[in-house]
Amino acid sequence: MNPRIAQTSAPVIDTLAERWSPRAFDAEHSLPEGALRGVFEAARWAPSANNSQPWRFIVTRRGSESFAAIEETLVGFNREWAGSAAALIVNVAEVEDAEGKPRPWAEYDLGQAVAHLSVQAHSEGLHVHQIGGFDRERISAAFGLEPRFRPVSVTALGALGSHEQLSEFLREREVAPRTRLDLEELVLLRD
Ligand SMILES: Cc1cc2nc3c(=O)[nH]c(=O)nc-3n(C[C@H](O)[C@H](O)[C@H](O)COP(=O)(O)O)c2cc1C
Questions:
Q1: Measured between alpha carbons, how far is residue 20 from residues 61, 101, 133, 138 in Å?
Q2: pLDDT tens-digit series, residues 120-161
């Protein structure tokens, strides 16, 4: 049994059960152009409050200056592994519109778009690992973001590598069974 496949208490779509977040990415793999277009089409068709689509994506490929600029803002053990991904993407929420009116659902909507992207990527044989551990102010400065655009997370996107390439600390986590709270803890059924 593959420990990275979710053990579910009811059937779910295969791509959802099989998606997982690796830290071992193949450092030789580059993304074909079409692959990027597909995952961003999936993000583009996510639902959002009032169809405001308050998401923006800064997309960089490994080897570019922009990729290195994102990598430098990663904190903790994220610096160890994320540089092997084929692309690093900054997920940005438009928290105010151009007139300064707040978009209260912007981060929620951005999360849905990234979820769409993750599932599409997995269905195309790619992997995604989202990262919250990075320096937001440095990212904003590096890409000259106006304050109404808030960097919320970074996505590492690429092909799966080997767990052997990781340090022992990360390798253990890479092969451990994936876990979740029981459904009964999450769902409060009220008749
Ligand atoms: C918003 C967000 C921030 C995350 N930040 C990090 C991070 O900084 N470093 C990391 O290694 N994983 C990070 N993760 C990945 C989670 O740890 C991972 O999704 C979770 O353990 C579940 O594992 P799975 O995606 O394989 O099911 C983040 C995930 C999300 C959604």
A1: 21, 36, 18, 28
A2: 999 999 999 999 999 999 999 999 999 999 999 999 999 999
Ligand 1 shell residues, CB under 6 Å: 20-21, 78, 130-133, 153, 178
Ligand 1 mean position to 187 CA, how many Å? Answer: 22
Rounded to two decimals, what is the model's pTM?
A: 0.97
Q: What is the pLDDT of residues 50-96, one digit of tens each?
A: 999 999 999 999 999 999 999 999 999 999 999 999 999 999 999 99
User: 108 by DSSP, 3-state: which?
Assistant: helix
Amino acid residing at 43: A
Q: In ligand 1, which atom is closest to the CA atom of 21?
A: 26
How many A from CA of 78 to the centre of ligand 1?
A: 10
Domains of the chain: 40-160 (3.40.109.10)
